[in-house]
Amino acid sequence: MFNKILIANRGEIALRVVRAAREMGIASVAVHSTADSDAMHVRMADESVCIGPPSSTQSYLSVPAIIAACEVTGAEAIHPGYGFLSENAGFVQVVEDHGLTFIGPTAEHIRVMGDKITAKDTMKKLGVPCVPGSEGGVASVEEAKKIGEEFGYPVIIKATAGGGGRGMKVAQNAEEMEKAFLTARAEGKANFGNDEVYIEKYLTTPRHIEIQVFGDGKGRAVHLGERDCSLQRRHQKVFEEAPGPSISAEERAAIGKTCADAVARINYTGAGTIEFLYENGEFYFIEMNTRLQVEHPVTEAIFDVDLVREQIRVAAGMEMSFQQEDLQINGHAIEVRINAEKLPNFAPCPGRITQYHAPGGLGVRMDSALYDGYSIPPYYDSLIGKLIVHGRDRPEALARLNRALGELIVDGVDTTVPLFHALLQEEDVLTGGYNIHWLEHWLETNLGGS
Q: Its GO biological process terms (predicted)?
C-alpha cells in the first residue's frame, strides 16, 4: 500500500480523496493555486504545495508543477479526481515515466476512450450497443448531408474529442446541417484543439443512463448498477439518481453484465462509467468516462461501498474487495449539484460565504469544501457542493431531499438551490417521468430561459 498520495485536484473532490486516504492510514498531499491557499482541501491534507497562479493552465493543469510536487513531498501516487488531468493520457504517461503510480486506468485506455470514434468502434467490437451513425470522422458538409439522409433527421454532430456539452450541435433537417456542422467543428477546435466531428442519429426522447464499472486490471470486472442522469441543462447534469426509475431489474442485469464483460476483456483498471442513451427499451452507447464521476456518491449509497478507497487499493496492486455477487442494491439515492450561479441565466456567482450550514440527519451526505468566510474564486467551475440523500425507496429519498434542501444554508452568493425546490414540486420529477430534454423545456417555460 502507498504511504503518501498526491491529489491533483481541488474543491470537494480533493477533500473527498483526502478523507478516504486518512481512513486508510495514507498521508495526503494537496496541491493548490495561489487563489486556493485557504481552500478546505489544503487545510485538511497532511501537506500542501502551491503549484502556480490562479489560472488552471498554470497550476492544476501544469504537469511539470504536479510532478515536482510529488518529488519534493515523496508522494508515490497521484489521484486525479475528475476534470483537469483525470482523462489526459499524456499526463498518465508522464506519471508512469517518473516511476509514480496513477490512480486510475492506463494511458492507453484513456487514449482509446477519449476519442469518441475510437471508443465507439471499440465498444462495438466488445458487444456494447451503439447509436446508429457515421463509421468515423466526417470531413465535409456534403458528406454530413448524405449521412443525414441515410439515417434520417434529426442528427447530432459531435466533436470527437468533445465533452461537457461542447462541440455538440443538432441538425433538424438538411437546411440546418451546414451551420450545425461548422459550429461543432469550430467548438471542437477551440475547446479541444481538434476539429474532427462525427454524426449520430438524434434520439428524440431518450433518458441518460450510465453504468458504473470497476476493473482490477487483471481481467476481472464488476458493474455497480446504473445512474439516471437525465435532468440536464445544456448537456450538463444537475440531478442524478440510482437506481434509475425507468430501468427494470432484468434490463439492469443484462446491460450491466455486457459492460462488465467489455471492460474485463480489455483489462481495464479502476473506476469507469459507460454512458448510454436509453429509449424504448434499448440502450445506445455514447461515451465512456475513464475516471470517477461527479455523481459517484449515489452509487456508493445504494451499494455501501467506497469507490475512492477501492481505486486506491486496486492501484496499489490489491484485489478488489467485492465481487459481483456481493453487490446488492439497497434503497434509492439522489444527488443534486449545488452551483454558485444566479438564476435564471445560471451566471457564475463567485464571492464570499457569509454563512454556511450543511444539512444532516439520517441518510443525508453533503460533499462540499465550503466554510464560513470562504471566498469562492472566479477562476474555476461553479460547483460548490453535492447534496446526496439515501432512503429505503424513491419516495423516501425525495422527501429526504426536500427536507435537506430546507436545512442547507449558503449565504453571501446566489446558488441553484431554488431550482431544486421548484423541481420537487413538479409531477414529472416526483414520478420520474422525464427525459434529457425535459429540464430545458421546463426552464424555458418557468424561468424564461435556460
A: fatty acid biosynthetic process; malonyl-CoA biosynthetic process
- CA 198, distance to chain mean position in Å, is 22
- 289-347 confidence digits (pLDDT tens): 999 999 999 999 999 999 999 999 999 999 999 999 999 999 999 999 999 999 999 99
Are 354 and 410 a contacting pair, CB within 8 Å?
no
CB neighbour list of residue 35: distance below 8 Å, 6 or more residues apart:
53, 54, 377, 379
197 closest CA partner among 280, 117, 81, 102: 117
End-to-end Cα separation, the chain, in angstroms: 47
d(CA 106, CA 320): 17
- Choose among 382, 390, 387: nearest CA to 351: 382
Q: What interhelical angle do 307-315 and 296-303 show, nearest 10?
A: 100
C-alpha 22/C-alpha 300 separation (Å) is 18
Helix (H, G, I), strand (E, B) or coil at 306: coil
- Residue 67: what are its φ and ψ, rounded to 5°? -65, -40
Range(s) within the chain of domains with CATH label 3.40.50.20: 4-89
pLDDT of residue 449: 58
d(CA 144, CA 415): 41
User: Nine-digit cell at 45?
Assistant: 491534507
DSSP structure class, residue 153: S
Residue 200 CB partners (closer than 8 Å, separation 6+) = 131, 132, 133, 134, 155, 156, 158, 286
- Alpha-carbon distances of 373 from 89, 363, 378, 384, 433, rounded to whole Å: 38, 27, 16, 14, 40
Lookup: cell for 269: 483498471
**CATH class of residue range 4-89:** alpha beta
Contact 52, 34 (CB under 8 A): yes
**Hey, what's the torsion of the CAs at 156, 159, 164, 165, to 10 degrees?**
-30
Contact criterion met (CB below 8 Å) for 45 and 108:
no
Active site residues: 291
Q: Which residues of the chain have pLDDT under 50?
A: none
d(CA 75, CA 28) in angstroms, rounded, equals 8
| Largest pairwise CA distance in the chain | 61
- Reported as half-sphere exposure (CB side, CA atoms, 13 A), residue 379 has a value of 17
Domain 132-201 fold is Dna Ligase; domain 1 (3.30.1490)
Q: What is the pLDDT of residue 240?
A: 98
β-strand partners of 279: 282
Question: Which residues contact residue 348 at a Cβ distance below 8 angstroms, ignoring those fewer than 6 apart?
Answer: 340, 341, 342, 378, 382
Residue 117, pLDDT score? 83
The pTM for the full model equals 0.90
Q: Which three cell numbers stand for residue 197?
A: 466531428
C-beta neighbour count of 124 within 10 angstroms: 13
